[in-house]
Amino acid sequence: MNERWYSKAVVYCLDIDTFQDSDGDGVGDIRGLIGRLDYLARLGITCLWLHPIHPSPNRDDGYDATDFYNVDPRFGTLGDFTELVHEARNLGIRVIIDLVVNHVSNEHPWFQSARSSPDSPYRDWFVWSDEAPSDRRQGMVFPGEQDETWTYDRTAKAWFYHRFYDFQPDLNITNPQVREEIKKICSFWLQLGVSGFRMDAVPFIIERTEPGNPNPEKDFEFLSELRQHVQWRQGDALLLAEANVEPAELTDYFGGRLHMLFDFMLNARLMLALARQDPEPVIDALRDTPALPDGAQWATFLRNHDEVDLSRLTADQRADVFEAFGPDENMRLYDRGIRRRLAPMLGNDMRRIQLAYSLQFSLRGTPVLRYGEELGMGEDLSLDGRMAIRTPMQWSQAKNAGFSDGDSLVRPLVEGWETLNATVQRNDRQSLLSWFERMIHTLREAPEVGAGSCQHVDVQVPRGVLAHRAIDRTGSVLFLHNLTDTACEVDMSSLAADADHPVEVLSDEGYDPITEDLAKLALNGYGFRWIRLRREP
Ligand code: NOJ
Fold it and tell me: Whose C-alpha lies nearest to ligand 1, atom 3?
């Protein structure tokens, strides 16, 4: 079966606080987002992934919740939230939310109670050690900003475990009450109409952490339990997981557990292919990724809200990507990544930006797009760490780029918004935004891309060219991408027998009409062509 909605979705992710402010306090809110749903509908996306929406001291941009059963009052109320879900549905857009249950904020009442006394009913909801654990300086996720994973709490008179920052104590997944609570949180939001969850930090959620053991066992059974639970509550609810693990471990997360996983390996290899102007890493990624069980799916992305994570590349490969896209130390983060948007990494060259997104959206899996990428928004490297790419959406030439009427904004706008904004691009057929609309609409007419099989067409092609096909019972589409600046000609005649009135459905620029023999297909420097070979009725 491949009719599952998420396999044909186009996902768009955003932070409510930087998207649209409706009340002039300088912080984006739910009512503001509701007013922009028409923009998202026109763009063609079908699923909205909201970064954390809960009340939070915001020391990790909301990934540190103090109440899982509410929305941050800066964003609005639960009533506003249900309006959002309803209005989005009317426009054919589902909403999924971030489920951040590996840890809570240290200001969460559960942790406050837990630390106050060994007899607290919440004591066992967290992971403690009476002695300093021998592995307390191992396993940090944010090197440079975090120097331990166990911290002594003087009130608790014990050490507590935190995989991330010391203000994010980990919940104890071995405690049945914690497992039940996580299920209850999911039920609550499903009841309010969400279509599923982007699960934060899944490999860490299921760790059976114990002091002195830096490599604890993982409790995959919990993922099966959770899947069962959400499916009973809502048959088509989605679990989309962040699990940036070794390729060999990936399949453990599928099969009756999670529906979709972000493809971090493909992400890094796409960046490498773009940096080297050589499709080989993408071909390797297509070959190496494990076959998925029925109903399982990859989520592809070029940029998300974090740094581009290059940790799974070899040192040489990483060095090439750093040199091309993060040449200054200030652009790099945690010794493994780049804290930039895609457009500036590609020199704001429209041809290369379109090539990159055409490639991502045409590969197997469900594409995920980060807000502002459709405009080619830039970053602000004067902001701390990952905040560089979490700046307000650029809507128009109006005050504060139309983001807010306020005088002080949640974060500064990136310079240049007067000319780089949605309104300017909406009125320009040659703009990146107009291209994204055309590309997404074309994709939605090509169901084989998300759900079908994706094959590298292994024939002789000029250097720097990738030829791949999406095939399904609905038909077949051929994609050509030229990762270099040099124009060339591609011979795809070996596919002619398989084609039935081939027709070009998207390309970077008007090429001569396709001939039935597919023998001489021109390709511009950084050019791309989507050619429908067949469409079954
Ligand atoms: C992964 C999220 O993507 C990141 O932004 C966050 O800081 C950590 N998880 C901790 O929740």
Answer: 306
